Amino acid sequence: MPRPPTNRRRSFSAPTIDDVAQAAGVSTATVSRALNSPDQVVPETRNKVMQTVAKLGYAPNFGARAMAAKRTNTIGAIIPTMENAIFARGLQAFQEELGRNQFTLLVASSSYQTKLEDEQIRTLLARGADALLLIGFARSQTAYQMLHARQIPAVVAWSYREDAPVPSVGFDNKSAMRELTDAVFEHGHRRIAIISAPTTDNDRAADRVEAVLQAARAGGLERADIPIIETPYSIDNGARAATDLLHRVKRPTAIICGNDVLAVGALKAAKSFGIKVPQELSITGFDDIELAQIADPPLTTVHVPHREMGRLGAKLLLELLDGQGALPGRELKTRIVFRESLGPAPK
Amino acid sequence: MPRPPTNRRRSFSAPTIDDVAQAAGVSTATVSRALNSPDQVVPETRNKVMQTVAKLGYAPNFGARAMAAKRTNTIGAIIPTMENAIFARGLQAFQEELGRNQFTLLVASSSYQTKLEDEQIRTLLARGADALLLIGFARSQTAYQMLHARQIPAVVAWSYREDAPVPSVGFDNKSAMRELTDAVFEHGHRRIAIISAPTTDNDRAADRVEAVLQAARAGGLERADIPIIETPYSIDNGARAATDLLHRVKRPTAIICGNDVLAVGALKAAKSFGIKVPQELSITGFDDIELAQIADPPLTTVHVPHREMGRLGAKLLLELLDGQGALPGRELKTRIVFRESLGPAPK
DNA sequence: TTTGACAGTGCAAGCGTTTACATTTTATTT
DNA sequence: AAATAAAATGTAAACGCTTGCACTGTCAAA
């Protein structure tokens, strides 16, 4: 029992370019052109096509388009986790800038695992990402090779280095943290401790810890004098780490935290032991997220322009895709925000 | 100058299934099977293929696969915004559950705009999403029609209704807020005000406001007695709205906020005017995000199990894809968390 | 009128997979 | 050893789109 081969009603599937072409009485090529390069098509035809498109609710199948055109106007981003407000914020700005340029964002998260990131890169490329946004420089050799071999434009955000394998947009975590530590020293603190996010596969965290140690050495302290606790990003972990530190025999007078979330946890712990901040203990953060202002007392921290970074990352990537050769990237300025959590060292 | 047509080196593009087949000395069909249904292939061959795949760093082109197989193991989610911690959190859990089942997540954000959401739905479907996670019930007729016409499984999260057009996993915003409002009344408050997120296209926000008004009526108040300010989600907006309310002639003794972020803003405003919370003013939130515990004083709020919701949403969707007919969805329980921001009404 | 030049449109190849169906190989039974 | 069944593999046709090339018609210049 033969059926007409064309125009068969594939029940329940999206309308195709054929459906549109047929309904509009033109060829698929014309439909495609009306959509992708409107000025190659005479207005009358174009309108007819557009109306049909609207009527049928047609949207080009992405996979098919990617295969035929070899580009997707899609940019992939791999962030460690969505739950960290700083990434969420930067990514939102990133996405907005892409949107303004008719690009779409594809997000994956790596949970701070190098191995997972390799896989995500492959996945995003297989999905047709034209370019990639990555966080920080710490990643496998394979990853860099892959990007290089396939000539995929990539930009690193949240870290900046002049001599980097890929252009970067970010700030110098080291100098920012050194400056903050100097300020802590100027307040007379000599017993300091560090609470940091895990530093493996996280160059931002590592740089910050390193900077504190360097500044401390300049201030005459030994590396061994400074307790360091590494713990994953969360208020409770910050509180636990601080609890540990505050029960040691030589209690620190200042705790320098790798980010605001850990710092807020430390604040919470101090409060629970009745230790007054900043009179008896100073605490600093990093990032300047909203939490930092709300904390009691408000946090002294390093302000990072996350939104700006996302926006610039997008711009840089789009420029790279436009073939504008080797752009160096862009360094952003951070600044210390002094609030009440940092005070003079107690006698 | 003729070149061999096969095995030509398309410079800089990802390895294809042909490359793998050739290198492994088998047909593309075998490679495909080794990857997708390993037990249809004899172990020896399978290993050979797998090794080649690893060596070449091959990942199947997603678009091509979607086109040929008509399913993608991809689920799309459209959330209002990533910047809202509650969605970020729920989505993370959603993603984790999908990952456990070899599914991938595709995220889009609608910025609370119905029109944009329609477009995003089309985009996600064009990109091959097998099913969709949506937030709340408020959306265009078109959207529902589209889902229905194409038989796309969808689940609504963050709201629950028995008689919904699609299964939902969430909680009853109205009864939760009514309960909270009752508690406020029991503390003796009679001059209350509302700060809410914009209620257009946001049934959660609308339900919460409605619930306050209902509870207030039950307590003998007129609708007109209760000032309502709608303002977008941000601490500063919450502060501004509270500032406005606190300068009115009949200053409220309790401000009920649609979410924790607005409530924290209100808290901030009160503090800046030297108004003591809860002695002179009570403030409540909704969601119970971390901010609520950190706030000073800590917020009385409604605890919502965001992670649980994300996880269940994923489960429900996967069940639907498995063809398990009309599942009703799942209602989650919320509970009020009493903290210090709610106190007895001042004389 | 003829001739180009050119704008608008159509034809059909190819993008990288999956999967019926066909074919070959292997194992089992006689 | 032959016959048969079952398992493994190969062949080739879709899937829905873009785009080089070919074609048709229009208009201006010769």
In short:
Two copies of one chain form a homodimer. Chain A is of the alpha/beta class and 347 residues long.
Topology:
The structure is a homodimer of 347-residue chains.
Chain A: H1 17-24, H2 28-36, H3 43-56, H4 62-69, E1 74-79, H5 85-100, E2 104-109, H6 114-126, E3 131-135, H7 141-149, E4 154-157, E5 168-170, H8 173-186, E6 192-196, H9 203-218, E7 228-230, H10 235-246, E8 254-257, H11 260-272, E9 282-284, H12 290-294, E10 301-303, H13 306-321, E11 329-331, E12 335-337
Parallel strand pairs in A: 1-2, 1-3, 3-4, 4-5, 5-11, 6-7, 6-8, 8-9
Antiparallel strand pairs in A: 10-12
Helix pairs in contact in A: 1-2, 1-3, 2-3, 5-13, 8-9, 10-11
Chain B binds a DNA duplex (30 and 30 nucleotides) through helix 2 and helix 4.
Essential attributes:
four-stranded parallel sheet; 347 residues; homodimer; six-stranded parallel sheet; 12 strands; DNA-binding; alpha/beta; disordered N terminus
Can you describe this structure?
The structure is a homodimer of 347-residue chains. Chain A has 347 residues and is an alpha/beta fold. The first copy, chain A, has 13 helices and 12 strands. Chain A has a 6-stranded parallel β-sheet with strand order 2-1-3-4-5-11, with helices on both faces. Chain A is elongated and about 85 Å long. In chain A, 47% of the residues are buried. The N terminus of chain A is likely disordered. Chains A and B meet through α4, α5, β2, α6 and α7 of A and α4, α5, β2, α6 and α7 of B. The structure holds a DNA duplex (30 and 30 nucleotides).
